[in-house]
Amino acid sequence: MERDTMTVLNQHTCCRKYCVFVCKKGVKVTSALLIPLLLAIFTVVITFEQKADADKQRFEDRELAQKQRQQDLNQSILSRENDRTIADAKRLADDLNAEKQRNMSRALEESRYKQERQRYFDELLISYLNDIGQLLKENNGSLTSNPASAALARAKTLQIAPHIGPVRVAQLIHFLYDAGQLTRGKNPLDVSGTYFHGVDLSTSSLRHISLVGAYMNNSSFTGQDVSEGDFHNTHLNGADFSKANCTNTSFSEATMIDANFSQAILHLATFSHVQLIRANFSQANFTNIMFESANMMETDFSHTSLFSIKFSKVDLTKAKFNAATISSYYSHVSFFQSNMQHTNFSKSYIPRSRFVECSLIGADFRE
Questions:
Q1: Cβ proximity of 226 and 208 under 8 Å
Q2: Backbone phi, then psi, for 200, in 5-degree steps?
Q3: Which terminus in the chain has less CB density within 10 A, N or C?
Q4: Are 315 and 294 contacting, i.e. CB atoms less than 8 angstroms apart?
Q5: Vertex 246, ends 241 and 247: CA angle to 5°?
Q6: Segments making up each domain of the chain, as ranges
Q7: Residues 253-271: pLDDT tens digits?
């Protein structure tokens, strides 16, 4: 019995020892296998982590490099744009400076040209005055006493007047007038056909002046005394005689479209066969005047003072006589065979006026 017990105990002991041995061996084997496996797994994990970090770093480096390249590209583009802007600005400044220089040069050349031109015209006028002065000496102070000298003086005047300008032309006219060569009734020099356009003769008295047949469009006689003057057949379109004294002055057969006679004194002036379309006679003083066979369409006689005025065979279509008055009880205004269609007599005071064989269609006589 005791032997069996001992046997069982021995078996248990042997079994326990075997289990312990097996466990130790198993632990050793497991340890020997697990540690390398764990190391391998750890190594793999570390490797993947390092690879991920490396990939991330490469991505970040690539992004940074891309940003840097883009920044460098933008900087390069901006730099090129700035350079181009600077170059364009410099080129524009150079062009402006060059243009300014050219303009200055051109202005200088034009100034020199004008100075030379003015000097040339001055020399022409001086030469003309000297030649005419010599002719006056040779002919006892009269250019027209000798047909040859008269023809030469006329030719010289015709040739020089269109070129020397209005200021010098005014000097030329004053010279001839002061020398007694343009005096009405004293065999004046023939200046018909001469171009005296735009001349200003409003600076001194020109009584008895004769400018027959001359071209004097847009000339000025403002406030001047041209009484007893002779402007027969003269071209005076746009001429200004405002406030001028035209007493006994002849304008027969003259062309005076758009001429201005406002506030002028027109005592005994002659206006036969004249062209006075759209002329302005407003506030003028008319005394003993006859308008005969004249074209005076749209002429303005408003606020004029009329004394013994006659209109014979005159075209007064659309003329204005509004507020015109007769200056004396004994005076009258007569119209004979005149066209007065649509003429305006509103608010005018012209008693004892006579209208003989006149066309008054559309005329306005309202007060």
A1: no
A2: -105, 110
A3: N
A4: yes
A5: 165
A6: 1-111
A7: 999 999 999 999 999 999 9
Gap between the Cα atoms of 278 and 238, Å rounded: 10
State how far the Cα of 302 lies from the Cα of 315, in Å rounded to an integer: 17
Angle between helices 166-178 and 2-138 (to 10 degrees): 10
Torsion of CA 21, 23, 25, 27, to 10 degrees: -150
Distance, CA of 213 to CA of 206 (rounded, Å): 17
DSSP 153-164: HHHHHHHHTTTS
Write the pLDDT tens digit of every residue in 162-208.
999 999 999 999 999 999 999 999 999 999 999 999 999 988 899 99
- Alpha helices, H only, the chain: 2-138, 147-160, 166-178
Pairwise CA distance, residues 352 & 233, whole Å: 33
Place of tokens 């759209």: 278
* Both tokens assigned to 96: 């402006």
Query: What span, in angstroms and rounded, lies between the C-alpha atoms of 235 and 132?
Result: 25
Structure-block tokens of residue 38: 């764990």
